[in-house]
Amino acid sequence: MTDFFKDIPQIKYEGLQSDNDFSFRHYDPDEIVFGKTLREHLRFSVAYWHSFAYDGGDPFGGQTFDRPWFGNEMDLAKLKADVAFEMFNILDTPFFCFHDADIRPEGNNFSENTRNLEEMIDYFSEKMAVTNTKLLWGTANLFSNRRYMSGAATNPDPDVFAFSAATIKTCLDATHKLGGQNYVLWGGREGYETLLNTDMGREREQAGRMLQMVVDYKHKIGFEGSILIEPKPQEPTKHQYDYDVATVYGFLKDFDLENEVKVNIEQGHAILAGHSFEHELSLARELGILGSIDMNRNDYQSGWDTDQFPNNVPEITLAYYEVLKAGGFKTGGTNFDAKLRRQSLDPEDLILSHVGAMDVCAAGLKSAARMLDDGKLEALRDQRYAGWNTKSGQDILNGDLESISSKVLNDDINPEPKSGRQERLENLVNKYI
Ligand code: XUL
Ligand code: CO
Fold first, then answer.
1. Ligand 1: residues within 6 Å at CB?
2. What pLDDT digit, counting tens, does each position of 31-57 carry?
3. Which entry of 99, 176, 269, 354 is annotated as an active-site residue?
4. Which of 87, 152, 238, 412 has the fewest CB atoms within 10 Å, counting from its CB?
């Protein structure tokens, strides 16, 4: 045991009347909703990078957090892992996620990186064998090191593509070895700063080729998890190719990968793309590519990817409504891609941020379940489209411009506008929250 979280107790469900800040008020992991426990529905995951690698820096100032594991040595990486697993235990979170660069010291070349990663994966394996923690997903950090400044798969230099491919292979191997349930690709530098130096067509082809290689290798090693792309429109690059769910779907279709790859949707990325979280989730559900979620919240004024912990139950309700409509998570889960504010220095801040986030997610999921169970919202929505279920509606859909034109004349079709009833529906949603 380290002494990092020394006096912090294990967090338990105590219910709404509890006055204890170190308790769950909404998240009872064993509560059954639609035949599954909340633990099974929500599949909470801690993001290693934000909780253990982030040092509190922002573009205007450096490190504010003082953590005993900061540094680039193997001993420190192991101390970091010790503290991480202690936190998973305090919170009883079933999953975690990592990038290679979060968990291992940075080496001087590919072989040193791989050696460091493999040693840490063995260290994780030992810990996972004696705890309840599982890996939701692994990923490669192909954006922080300067070699990736002009992209990874989309780099103008084939050697960077090769270095990236080799790194993805080691990270997919590591994810497979730890029994990871998904493998994520987020293309932070897969985009451009200026079209003046960019061959967009070529870069898109390179990205497609890399993804095909990843899918081929996944099958070759028998990795049964899902491959997930995480859409984001910009930041760090000015324009990223995986802009949003619709763009990713078009890309997957183009490279025959729409049945192989799903999406990991992040609240903050949806906001940056000018969408709501539920828009992205709903579209992915309709397209059959909803894989997993990165749960956080963006500041609505700043225009940055602020990665704050979620705390807005009405928004979360609409998000989990889509997840439940999709039949719930399969390999996916709720990964808190969220970091402390740079003034939140204390170990307890790390715990309480997650406690609050888990609680609002549980509250949101339960509200969503009540709304779905009641069926009123779905019924009102169905009513709006009822005309399409009639013979006349079907004739229109199956007709052509000429037959429809005759029908409009013969039946004297003269549409009467009907209310969209938005306010009534908004009132209805608030009843479940
Ligand atoms: C960046 C982001 C990443 C991905 C994994 O905005 O969300 O942390 O989730 O690379
Ligand atoms: Co993310």
1. 99, 139, 184, 186, 230, 232, 266, 294, 305, 337
2. 999 999 999 999 999 999 999 999 999
3. 99
4. 412
Strands (E), 280-392: 290-295, 334-336
Q: Which atom of ligand 1 is nearest to the CA of 143?
A: 10
What are the structural domains of the chain?
12-374 (3.20.20.150), 378-431 (no CATH)
305, 417 Cβ separation under 8 angstroms = no
Please give the Cα distance from 252 to 244 (Å, whole number).
12
* Residue 266 CA to ligand 2 centre (angstroms): 6
Q: Which atom of ligand 1 is nearest to the CA of 269?
A: 6
Distance CA 183, CA 229 (A): 9
What residues have CB less than 8 Å from 319, skipping those under 6 apart?
267, 277, 278, 281, 293, 295, 364, 368
Q: What is the pLDDT of residues 231-286, one digit of tens each?
A: 999 999 999 999 999 999 999 999 999 999 999 999 999 999 999 999 999 999 99
pLDDT at residue 286, as a whole number: 98
Say how many Å lie between the CA of residue 358 and the centre of ligand 1.
19
